Amino acid sequence: MSHPIKAQEFLSDPAKAKWHDETLWFVRDKRDTITKTIPEWEQLRDLASQIKDNVLANLDRYLVEFEQKAKANNIHVHWAADAEEHNHIVLGILRQHDCKAIVKSKSILTEECHLNPFLEKNGVEVVDTDLGERIVQFLNQPPSHIVLPAIHLKKRDISEIFHEKLQTEKGNEDPSYLTQAARVHLREKFLSAKVAITGVNFGIAETGEFVVCTNEGNADMGVHLADVQIACMGIEKIIPRRRDLGVFLRILARSATGQPVTNYNSHFRSPAPGKQMHIILVDNGRTDQLAREKFKNSLKCIRCGACMNTCPIYRRSGGFSYGSVVPGPIGSILSPGLDLKKYSSLPFASTLCGSCSDVCPVKINIHEQLYEWRQEITKEQGANAKSISMKIANGIFSTPFAYKISGKMLRGALKILPEAITYSSLNTWGKQRDLPEVPKESFKDWYKKNRK
Ligand code: SF4
């Protein structure tokens, strides 16, 4: 199903769509305010972008360095070529430990690999411990935003879900009350899980350690209580040195939510005595993307979500309209690399206003890549209604006589044609808009008469 059709579903509740738009704009605004307090903000963006350029140019070397250092720190390192291999590695570790229930902190990669349904199918209970993720998990929904997974839901919705799942008071929408109920519920899960799964925000080649950033401390809580940690990391998450981390930690939370820094930036370097630490390095299409000269920059993404918060299309169409794990502008340049046919409508879900590129803390040229994908998709799809009509328009606009005659004919036709034809299903443009009033004469005729 294409983006415009799914967006229509979202827009069928205009009040909610308006609220979604305004809420995300509020987050964008917070980002703007806080970045203006950092005089060197633009230098930080440049530096982050350059560090990531270096990573992409030397990814093989940094990954091998990371593996060596991590192994020396007693971390078990696994490599997964794709989602299937990743999921089987996780399951293998769980079976070794006879584990039937795990806690998991936020990890877009595990969503990308569809780990939850895979584990559940294999008899493992998965509990997402990020509050927003737990809420959408109760609804059997994927996250609609990479940083704010339940941003499409209002307090009232959450109150109803908690009443049903956690037996909270009916109608009580107090955020503190609901959060407290979630804490009690999650605490039980934390205490009983033998294995904790986390994502990875940064893997440091120089030291073999990795860093996980959360606002709720749920990754730390899970890891410290469990016997085994499994960290799932996309191979592009490598940074060369520990000192590079400061650059990224300064830009990540400011870009994401307008906070000075994420509440918990936890460094994992080696397992505690008697415990195990595993890290899975996952490719799943990343090296293919790296080989695409025009699109490889998309791998610089640090998943801050700022491009979503600013995008006029994302704000007005909601995360689910993209049908991909990573929605919004960055998802629209990553997803076609995974499946061009399936995600062919996404690069068109943009005004190409460039706001995404302006806010991106690692300076990805997102709107240019969206435009590039459009060219690729159009080439791939061959002639369609739009390209044929553009060709016809090109012929008309470049021939003065044809332009004059067709203008005259159209003006005449629009006056007499019934609305059933002018606003038929072929006129998708006219679904949300009225055609302009037909002028009596062409500009050329008017000019001849009035500007002699
Ligand atoms: S593309 Fe840039 S703005 Fe968008 S999520 Fe990634 S880092 Fe953030």
UniProtKB/TrEMBL annotation:
<dbReference type="Pfam" id="PF11870">
    <property type="entry name" value="LutB_C"/>
</dbReference>
<dbReference type="InterPro" id="IPR009051">
    <property type="entry name" value="Helical_ferredxn"/>
</dbReference>
<keyword id="KW-0004">4Fe-4S</keyword>
<keyword id="KW-0249">Electron transport</keyword>
<keyword id="KW-0479">Metal-binding</keyword>
<dbReference type="InterPro" id="IPR004452">
    <property type="entry name" value="LutB/LldF"/>
</dbReference>
<dbReference type="InterPro" id="IPR037171">
    <property type="entry name" value="NagB/RpiA_transferase-like"/>
</dbReference>
<dbReference type="InterPro" id="IPR017900">
    <property type="entry name" value="4Fe4S_Fe_S_CS"/>
</dbReference>
<keyword id="KW-0408">Iron</keyword>
<dbReference type="Pfam" id="PF13183">
    <property type="entry name" value="Fer4_8"/>
</dbReference>
<feature type="domain" description="4Fe-4S ferredoxin-type">
    <location>
        <begin position="291"/>
        <end position="312"/>
    </location>
</feature>
<dbReference type="Pfam" id="PF02589">
    <property type="entry name" value="LUD_dom"/>
</dbReference>
<keyword id="KW-0813">Transport</keyword>
<dbReference type="InterPro" id="IPR017896">
    <property type="entry name" value="4Fe4S_Fe-S-bd"/>
</dbReference>
<dbReference type="InterPro" id="IPR024185">
    <property type="entry name" value="FTHF_cligase-like_sf"/>
</dbReference>
<dbReference type="InterPro" id="IPR024569">
    <property type="entry name" value="LutB_C"/>
</dbReference>
<keyword id="KW-0411">Iron-sulfur</keyword>
<protein>
    <submittedName>
        <fullName>Lactate utilization protein</fullName>
    </submittedName>
</protein>
<dbReference type="InterPro" id="IPR003741">
    <property type="entry name" value="LUD_dom"/>
</dbReference>
<keyword id="KW-0677">Repeat</keyword>
